[in-house]
Specification:
Distance between the termini: 27 Å
Structural class: alpha/beta
Helix content: 40-55%
Order of helices and strands: EHHEHEHEHEHEHEEHHEEHEHHEH
Shape: globular
Radius of gyration: 21 Å
Number of strands: 12
């Protein structure tokens, strides 16, 4: 049975070149980058090359890029560390209601620390609007966090306009964006967006799991939540995960070089999938026009997400019922969109990758039709 992997928003297959580099770093260039001898200096050069590649892909100064264990840690550091650094100026934080759990739960943690949090709902197109954010910001607001691309429905937020609206209302606001789903999948020059903090990670772009990064604009301040060393300018101390970092840098380089072709393929696949299901009675599209084409969210009311997921798995097709980090919990993203429980309970996220072919879409649609015939009796 052919394996059809359509869960690339959860994680991706690692590039062969990135995996080989990680192996080489583990077995040949294994020095600690903080060591002062030649093996350490050799490792440090590899690390800094990776930092430059990732920063270049993001359109930022590499000096502001700090390595973390992944997107979740980077989001925790940005939201909690960014808010605490500004606590003397106010106690209000604004996040979109459909952020990744690592942002939502960071915001909940801030609530236990005396902060007031506003959860901003998306509009009918799944977008956080500059007008709604402008209205929500006040003189007590210290931090705003809005993701660039939503991980379940692919909605693309107007980050530059959102940041400008927030800072027009209160210039002291720190603006963070979780760009995990956008990084290397769409053109992004973070320094030109006006944002202060940006989260990225490796395993969504053909890199390994366990490594991510937070970019901090010069002049912005974030308090650390790890202690015990001088690494990463004391913001994220601890010996750097050199094999993962090196592979992250290689994946960023390869992804940027292939971005134009990737985007064209994703657009083709999105159109092909939507055309294939548009006349199928009972399938509802949850992703709106203008969303990132690599993510298409659908519902088949009457078949619970978990049932559909395992039915497809038995056909060798791998999709998701939402964010992998939610471990099957009902989607707070679709709830924030105002969808009813039948639509939420039957949602399936299909996310394409560099290995996806049109034939994979044919197999998926055929399997969904069979599921509707067999499971909706």
């Amino acid at each position: 049975m052919k394996e059809i992997y359509l869960d690339n928003s959860a994680t991706t297959r690692v590039y062969d070149e990135a995996a080989k580099l990680a192996f080489d770093v583990m077995t040949e260039y294994y020095g600690n980058p903080s060591s002062l001898h030649s093996k350490g200096i050799e490792a440090e050069k590899i690390m800094e090359e990776a930092r430059k590649n990732i920063a270049s892909a993001l359109g930022v100064d590499p000096d502001g890029l700090y390595f973390t264990s992944g997107g979740t840690e980077a989001n925790n550091l940005a939201v909690i560390g960014g808010a605490l650094a500004k606590k003397r100026r106010g106690n209000k934080v604004i996040v979109s209601a459909y952020e990744h759990d690592s942002v939502i739960k960071s915001a909940k943690q801030l609530e236990t620390m005396g902060f007031s949090v506003t959860y901003l709902a998306p509009d009918e197109n799944g977008i956080i609007t500059p007008a709604s954010l402008f209205d929500a910001v006040d003189d007590k607001t210290v931090l705003v966090s809005v993701m660039t691309v939503n991980n379940e429905i692919g909605a693309i937020n107007p980050i530059k306009e959102l940041c400008a609206a927030a800072k027009r209302k209160n210039p002291e606001v720190v603006f963070h964006t979780d760009a995990v789903q956008a990084f290397c999948k769409m053109p992004m020059r973070a320094e030109k967006l006006g944002v202060d903090l940006v989260t990225v990670t490796a395993h969504k772009i053909g890199g390994p799991k366990g490594v991510g990064a937070l970019w901090i604009k010069k002049g912005a301040r974030v308090l650390p939540n790890h202690f015990g060393g001088e690494q990463e300018k004391q913001l994220r101390p601890g010996t750097q995960a050199m094999p993962l970092i090196a592979a992250f840098g290689k994946a960023a380089e390869l992804s940027v070089n292939g971005m134009k072709d990737f985007r064209e393929r994703m657009s083709m696949l999105e159109s092909y999938l939507k055309n294939s299901v548009k006349d199928v009675d009972g399938i509802v599209l949850n992703s709106k026009e203008g969303a990132l084409p690599a993510i298409v969210n659908i519902s088949v009311p009457g078949i619970r997400s978990e049932i559909m997921l395992h039915y497809l798995e038995n056909r060798g097709i791998y999709v998701s019922s939402g964010s992998a980090c939610a471990l099957g919990a009902k989607s707070h993203v679709l709830a924030a969109m105002g969808y009813d429980s039948a639509r939420i309970d039957s949602a399936v996220r299909i996310s394409f990758g560099r290995d996806t072919e049109k034939e994979d879409i044919d197999e998926l649609v055929a399997a969904i039709k069979d599921a509707m015939s067999e499971l909706c009796r």
